[in-house]
Design goal:
Layout: E1 2-10, H1 14-32, E2 35-40, H2 45-51, H3 57-65, E3 68-73, H4 92-102, E4 107-114, H5 126-131, E5 133-140, E6 150-155, E7 158-163, H6 169-184, E8 189-194, H7 200-213, E9 220-225, H8 226-235, E10 242-245, H9 247-261, E11 268-272, E12 278-282, H10 299-311, H11 316-331, E13 334-335, E14 345-346, H12 349-358
Helix pairs in contact: 1-10, 1-12, 6-7, 8-9, 10-11, 11-12
Bound molecules: nicotinamide-adenine-dinucleotide.
Nicotinamide-adenine-dinucleotide binds at residues 13, 17, 73-76, 93, 96, 264-265, 281, 284-287, 289-290, 296-297, 300, 338.
């Protein structure tokens, strides 16, 4: 297969971790007989330094022409970086928001996996951590409360604030379909999370999700109220496969799920639209405190590259090979500083990338 991948190395540790993910992609392409062409794109602080803005129209157009985009992280230290003396709309993060909007990325995917080798980092009780978990949170990203009308007005001498929560049938259907598509590549279970006992938007969510479920007879659907879901994530996370939910609930639950894995350097993510295109990036930030030291954990970016092969190119076998190589290196006791524990061998960013490559 010929793949045309846009690459945004980004700021801070971004270039270091993306280089390792590219090495792993190159090795995978070599072993499985694919051709990859990379197009380097500037976004965030790196783009401000060169172009004066965090994202140019040309970069957005180039990103649209790619089959998928792999990204490191963007941004810098808000206290010391000159990028943060610019007005908010010109700062690095504004580039990411413009990119997501320009590419119509309405679905955010965040896997939360507890590797048996990293159980010690899990803050849950030992008997829960012992069971492990491997879930995928699919969050609607462009609708709901965060994008509704808002106002703060004085009424009869008191301030009243309003935030509107709107979801259309179309918005719910397109994210639900993506959720069920993802479940078909996993254990074929979708837990749709809502607050249908209170909210109209949730009652519509539930109705449309049930309609979509009929198109996927192999997938088991269950509904869960968001307050229960928050509890179940810490009580019995092993029960989940795909969690499908709206924007605000997903924002909160995906952070909760990340926390129970215990390590930010291991967390991949993807943002998808209704084509095969996706933007793949680690969940962590640009970690300027450790940038340039060669110690950042590249695994989240490497696992994001594996997600790219799986979801944008349907190369499941190749994605499995990358995930298995990551597990193998962990099994052998190699760790970057963020996941280091007693008795393990500490290695740097490059060595981690190379060791993972050696198992593909
Ligand atoms: P951060 O994720 O960059 O760092 C938090 C802590 O985790 C730091 O101690 C850091 O050293 C550590 N860490 C993060 N990734 C790591 C890795 N791969 N390996 C080892 N350690 C790792 O969060 P922050 O400090 O709040 O944010 C720093 C900058 O990143 C800010 O400018 C923020 O806006 C930006 N940011 C960008 C994205 C993105 O690009 N999508 C996401 C989050 C934050």
């Amino acid at each position: 297969m010929d793949m045309n991948i846009g690459v945004i190395k980004g700021d801070g540790i971004g270039p270091e971790i993306v280089d390792e993910a590219m090495k792993v992609l190159d090795k995978t392409a070599e072993v499985y007989g694919h051709q990859i062409e990379y197009t380097q794109l500037l976004m965030g602080g790196a783009s401000i330094d060169v172009n004066g803005v965090p994202l140019t129209e040309e970069t957005l157009e180039q990103a649209k022409k790619s089959d998928a985009v792999l990204m490191g992280s963007i941004g810098g230290d808000a206290k010391t970086s000159p990028w943060y003396r610019l007005e908010p709309s010109k700062r690095p993060e504004a580039g990411l928001l413009q990119l997501r909007k320009g590419l119509n990325l309405f679905a955010n995917l965040r896997p939360a996996v507890l590797y048996s080798e990293l159980k010690g980092a899990c803050p849950l009780k030992e008997e829960i951590a012992e069971q492990g978990f491997d879930m995928m949170i699919m969050r609607e990203l462009t609708g709901g409360l965060y994008f509704g009308k808002r106002s703060t007005e004085e009424e009869d001498g008191v301030l009243v604030a309003r935030d509107e929560l709107t979801y259309s049938e179309t918005e719910i259907r397109r994210i639900a379909k993506r959720g069920f598509d993802i479940a078909m590549k996993r254990w074929k279970k979708v837990t749709s999370v809502d607050k249908a006992n209170v909210l109209d938007s949730s009652r519509l969510w539930r109705k449309i999700v049930e309609e979509v479920a009929k198109e996927y007879p192999e997938v088991t659907l269950e509904h869960m109220l968001v307050d229960n879901a928050a509890m179940q994530l810490v009580k019995d996370p092993a029960q989940f496969d795909v969690i499908l939910t709206e924007n605000m609930f997903g924002d909160i639950l995906s952070d909760e799920a990340s926390m129970v894995t215990g390590s930010i350097g291991m967390l991949a993510s993807a943002s998808l639209n209704d084509t095969k295109f996706g933007l793949y990036e680690p969940s962590g930030g640009s970690a300027s405190d450790i940038a340039g030291k060669g110690i950042a954990n590249p695994i989240a970016t490497i696992l994001s590259a594996a997600m790219m092969l799986r979801y944008s190119f349907d190369l499941d076998q190749e994605a499995d090979a990358i995930e298995a190589a990551v597990e193998k290196v962990l099994e052998e006791g190699y760790r970057t500083i963020d996941i280091m524990s007693e008795g393990m061998t500490q290695i740097g960013t490059k060595e981690m990338g190379e060791r993972i490559c050696s198992y593909i």
